[in-house]
Amino acid sequence: MAIAKAERLMNLALCLxxxxxxxSKRELRGSIEAYMEAGTDDSFNRMFERDKDDLxxxxxxxxxxxALDGEIGYLARRDSNRLPPVSLDAEEAAALGLAAKVWQQxxxxxxxxxxxxxxxxxxxxxxxxxxxxQHSAIEPRIPxxxxxxEPLMLACRDRRPVTFDYRKSNAVRPEQxxxxxxALECWRGQxxxxxxxxxxxxxxxxRLSRITGKVKSRAGKYTxxxxxxxxxxxxxxxxxxxxxxxxARIRLRQGAGYPLRARATAVxxxxxxxxxxxxxxGHGLDAWxxxxxxxxMVLEPADLRADVVDRLRAVAxx
Length: 318
Description:
This protein is α+β, with helices and mostly antiparallel strands. The protein has eleven helices and twelve strands. Strand 4 and strand 5 (175-187) form a beta hairpin.
């Protein structure tokens, strides 16, 4: 539904920008497929007025002109809606190029690619490859596999509350969450949503791969203030295990768990094909350790060991 509205807004904007004379509502209805499908004149009028207001809110300057016969027409003059010259340095161009890679596996991949081409045509410099001549086969990628990504991204942009079913890693069944979404963040190849959980009355972070079913939009305004982007990133990092204020001691099977070894502050041979590691310990480490299955044993602290055991039992129950 959100994609259909975006397409309708784009078509209306193109019609208003592509005309040299004001177009009446009758002409616009006959030119845009979504308006043709409107059941009644009242439903079309409501849809058109909402779309017109949305485009103006997005920054499009739409003029209302009355013809000699009294009919009202609309147009968006190009000189009133022309963007200033694009001026980006190489680092900014590289950042935009990397951001576009988020859409490689999303439905808006073509739009992202086309936007980059237009920016380059307008003078944006080509982003050089910092690995050229050294690791030319290495290319940064930000995969988007989760079906929840696109509706949540649109909900974050439009500031719309959502509901979805969410299964915690130590739960057998999912439960419904009512969330005011703030932002999406990628951490260690996984996407997370940060937002305000209405039922719990506090900020929460949700891993997109644990969202089951469809994300549904809800009417109404946010009830909690949205923090700045830096605070949101810190929240995601903390919940996903980036912030560590303690140290955990684990036993890891030799030849396994290379991401854990990369984070270890100390490693020693424990014998019998096992190594003992000291790992920075923060929120989310238990969920990460579970992913390594029988190759990991938690020695201490006791509460971390108990959390890992609970998660493994929940997985075993299916």
